[in-house]
Amino acid sequence: MSEQITLSTRDRVLRRIKALELERSSWWGHWKQINDVLIPRSGRFFVTDVNRGERKNDILDDTGTAALTTLGAGMQSGMTSPARPWVRLETDDPELMENANVSKWLDDVTRTILNVFARSNTYNSLHSMYEELGAFGTACAVVLPDYKNVIHFYPLTIGEYSLAASDRNEIDTLGRHFQMTVMQIVQRFVAQGSAERKSGSWDWSNVSTQVKNAWDSHNLDIWIPLYQLIDPRLERDPLKLDSKNMPWRSIIIESSGSDDKVLRESGYKRFPVLAPRWQVTGNDTYGSNCPGMRALGGILQLQHEHKRKLQGIDFQVQPPIMVPTSLKGQDSDFLPGGVTYYDAMSGQAQPARSAWDVQLDLQHLLLDIQDVRQLIRSAFFTDVFLSMDNMPGIQPRNEREVQERHEEKLMMLGPVTERQQGELLTPLVNIAFDACMEAGILPEPPEELQGVELKMEFVSVLAQAQRSTAMAGVDRWIGAIGAIAAAKQDPSVWDNADTDQVVQDAAGYLGVSPEMARGKEDVQAIRESRAKAQQAMAQQQQAAQAAETAKTLAQAPVTPDNALGQVVRGFSNQ
User: What Pfam families does the record point to (predicted)?
Assistant: First the structure.
């Protein structure tokens, strides 16, 4: 019977992170190559790659970098624009959504969450995540509660984190190997955010001697390597609510610390990591087939062609030359406009001449460069996000044509948009909702929502583009009904359409705020009031017409020969 090995918490963390890094190693070279030719200032492939100013940009043609910038900005404005609402909370019950209290509460909560995003560093972090997502296929950030801004993003770059997925292939584990300065470590783990506490009352028991000595000698900017592991806590007591019994645990240790020292062990009710992926193949942990991977060959080809183009220009401007041996050791000036004198031999001039006359035709090379640039831009969906600027030929004839062209191209991003809604935006809104609840800034929910599960409806530009086909079908159907009614001059054709339901569905397709649409009860009340007003008006018109008729009859002459006289005679005979 084998003995059970007892490992310290620190040792367990190190073993898990080393295993995650080993699993990640097969992606390392690919990411590094993309990083060098696309965004060389990003990526931390070694723990010491922090604040390194010597990392230079040696890219000859930045078409790929510019296309990635367009992609990041396009996804930001198309999915999570700070200038307009891009999500709203709803329920699955349509009748409940028509309740005024429920509708108002959901709208207030949505506005509060969007205000939290605008006040924090959410949108800046999302933009960098979109660029990393387009370049490497995977992006990552840790979102934690913040006493000042409710939530705070800690975006990570490729190479400094490793991931693991659950049995459902959902990311549920994060490992990090990173650095913090002595000052940062003391602020977060020793002083615990209190600037008023004296150093004598701080708890130094969990930091290494290196950190304590550096602090005492005032070397506050020394970088200290750390490890962090965030993973599911399988062994816990679900009846306890303390940090060490929450569903997810977070452990941070120093690389050079002792076996029994842990900087901090905490817990989370919800996985605090956002790890969206561009596309996932099978059970892969990391994303693939992203624009950066697809365009890598073209980007490398573009750099190679630019080198050859520059080399050809050098051959033409400053070609290698063959010089008579008689000029060896003599002053020579082969710069533009320079003159070199030499003695002719055997009575014949021996001029300095080129080793060969270089007359390169670079036109074909330039045409190929333009072709490769276009392929790179297409891989990054530049034609989608800049469709108006890149529209060839005659400009669109009307707004409808512009909208249809734009929506047709946006549909190409449909699968990517759906994955980001599931792996990025939904977890983000859930984290923000929990943080707002804990901060006490949400209004009390109405009784009608007790026990009701909420859902998210994304109303961004890209999300609406996915639903545009349904709205286009509604437009064509309504147009067809109107054409038939006009051709037959028969308005009863409209009886085939439930126009109230059409209006409600159209509001959902177009992302119209629920506050702009009246509920069924309000619409019914307005119609009843209008019917009563019309009925009263009709009665007034009838009364006025009867009075006018009576007045006319009273003024008419009565003779035996006219109709009025015969009527009177008839009554008299009775």
Answer: Head-tail_con
Residue 283, class by beta-carbon neighbours within 10 Å (0-12 exposed, 13-18 middle, 19+ buried)? exposed
Identify any residues that bridge with 254 across adjacent strands, giving them in sequence order.
226
Question: Between 338 and 76, whose confidence is greater?
Answer: 76
d(CA 511, CA 470): 13
Of the candidates 61, 30, 34, which has an alpha carbon nearest to the alpha carbon of residue 305? 61
Identify the H or E element spanning 155. strand 150-156
Q: Taking residues 259-267, what's their average pLDDT?
A: 85
Q: What is the pLDDT of residues 438-480, one digit of tens each?
A: 999 999 988 888 888 888 888 876 666 655 555 666 666 676 7
Distance CA(155)–CA(171), nearest Å, equals 16
Of 15, 16, 18, 13, the C-alpha closest to 260 is 13
Phi, psi for residue 163 in degrees, rounded to 5: -125, 160
Q: pLDDT tens, 372-393?
A: 888 998 889 888 777 655 555 5
Backbone angles phi, psi at 567, to 5 degrees: -65, -45
Residue ranges of E strands in 233-325 = 248-254, 264-268, 273-274, 321-322
CB-side exposure of 23: number of CA atoms within 13 Å? 16
In the numeric block, which tokens belong to residue 459?
Answer: 């109303």
- How confident is residue 347, by pLDDT bands cut at 50, 70 and 90? low
Gap between the Cα atoms of 68 and 131, Å rounded:
6
* pTM over the 0.85 mark: no
